[in-house]
Amino acid sequence: MPGASLTLKPALDAIGKAIDQRFDRLLPVPEDSRARLFEAMRHAAIGGGKRMRPLLVVAACDLFHVDRERALRVAMAIECIHVYSLIHDDLPCMDDDDMRRGKPTVHKAFDEATAVLAGDSLHDLAYDILADAATHEDPFVRLELIQALSAASGPMGMAGGQMMDLVAGDALYDLGAVTRLQQLKTGALIGFCLEAGGIMGGIADGQRTPLRGYARDLGLAFQIADDLLDVEGTEAAAGKALRKDEEAGKATFVSLLGLERARTQAQMLIDQAILHLASFGQEADLLRAIARFAIERDR
Amino acid sequence: MPGASLTLKPALDAIGKAIDQRFDRLLPVPEDSRARLFEAMRHAAIGGGKRMRPLLVVAACDLFHVDRERALRVAMAIECIHVYSLIHDDLPCMDDDDMRRGKPTVHKAFDEATAVLAGDSLHDLAYDILADAATHEDPFVRLELIQALSAASGPMGMAGGQMMDLVAGDALYDLGAVTRLQQLKTGALIGFCLEAGGIMGGIADGQRTPLRGYARDLGLAFQIADDLLDVEGTEAAAGKALRKDEEAGKATFVSLLGLERARTQAQMLIDQAILHLASFGQEADLLRAIARFAIERDR
């Protein structure tokens, strides 16, 4: 389906612009020695990335006709968490990456200590945005979002997945273990994006099964596509170093399944993700377009 | 006043035990490769430190007869933030410390990447505790606590102060600048501890002036005492490396004021802190005892 990414292009452009504008407003540089910290946060947060997670929040909110402004506030919170995790992930003691989103990583453009603090600060900012009374969100909605975010981001979610990934260097992971690792490392935050739509849409916990099914399948397809990109892509297009997993001898979906089966598996997951949306009409079109886009990025 | 720390001893013992028990319950080690992350969190969080910040929350709650169990939940959140900040502060790229609270720092006992993730995870845990519906706290109270915490911990608070401290290596700070730096780096979290008492006690924003005055004076006295300890103390008693500021050529209250004037200044600030409590009776005795204890620690 070569047209799918074309369909998504205006939505990606719009969300990119909206997120950049909001970060610019949210991070004015103070006139004292904290300036360096804010400059580092801006370097990481503004002008880069596909903003897939913010777009997922907006698309999930579309399902329940949640106002775009409300969706964008939560989208900012999840992007703060994503950017913080990238900054810390890129540190020399973690993945040791020099480039990210086509720019030097924060510890390269600034220094390691500033990178640690910039990540920590964006981490706080995410919760600050969700708690903010200015959201006019019902207080129970705000609290449920905060709890869902801490579960997705913390030691049983994303951070736990990163720990598994670190330990993976010494262990031999099979397909089940790699799936579990990725469901935490990248899947937990993607799960939050969909869950947020349900929470803001006032959908009861028991009614969120299609959202969770979509998120799970999309998250895995997304990761397989990332693994494929790591093998087949160019560093210029990806904006970061590639083929690091292979060098480190880490098990990935591609190393475990082979190129051909990995591709088939990703396509199957995307078909499945879209099937979870069967009970929705046009209001799910953006989620469907995102799913198709997930496996045809930047090749 | 040699009797002051004796008065505080039972309270310090009780809070230490309560916090340890709660961390033990809160951080069960999972049976997968996330285990290492939880072990690192437990290493940092359990069995160490004077638990001054939790004790301050409890003491501030005493002022308004807030139930001890409610106070302890918020005390756990602030201790999570404090411990996360110590883990990241101790990293080689930050203060590069090998010992903390008489034990190897997390990156020494584990590794740097695990230390980054353990800090990040405790950071999430703090917000999770405050948002938790199980607190039975009014939702507006929970949200106000979360916003106060993110302001105290984030880039305009503690993290901003740490940035100032990093930049200080290259700049010549005078007394005003060092005061401002410390009011953010250590003062912001101390301010939160007192503010939390006011929030949970249902005290209107405009009525919290004595709490803020006490916190500001105590925070500075605490830091001067720390600077004095850094010059006069023993590493065995402090449980960490000392005299690092002097080696780094950093301006401190002691280097700027001299020993004698620093001591007088700390005493004056403590007298002032206690004066802010003049309108309270016995219910402020714990806060008074903490203030006196602040300048006679571990010599």
Automatic annotation (TrEMBL), chains A, B:
Q: Which cofactor does it need?
A: Mg(2+)
Keywords of this entry: Isoprene biosynthesis, Magnesium, Metal-binding, Transferase
In terms of InterPro entries, this protein maps to: Isoprenoid_synthase_dom_sf, Polyprenyl_synt, Polyprenyl_synt_CS, Prenyl_diphosphate_synthase
Write out the transmembrane intervals.
none
Which Enzyme Commission number(s) are on file for it? 2.5.1.1, 2.5.1.10
Q: What is this protein identified as?
A: Farnesyl diphosphate synthase
What SUPFAM superfamilies does the database record attribute to this sequence?
A: Terpenoid synthases
Gene3D superfamilies xrefs: Farnesyl Diphosphate Synthase
Tell me if Transferase is a UniProt keyword of this record: yes
Family designation: Belongs to the FPP/GGPP synthase family.
From what organism does this protein derive? Polymorphobacter multimanifer
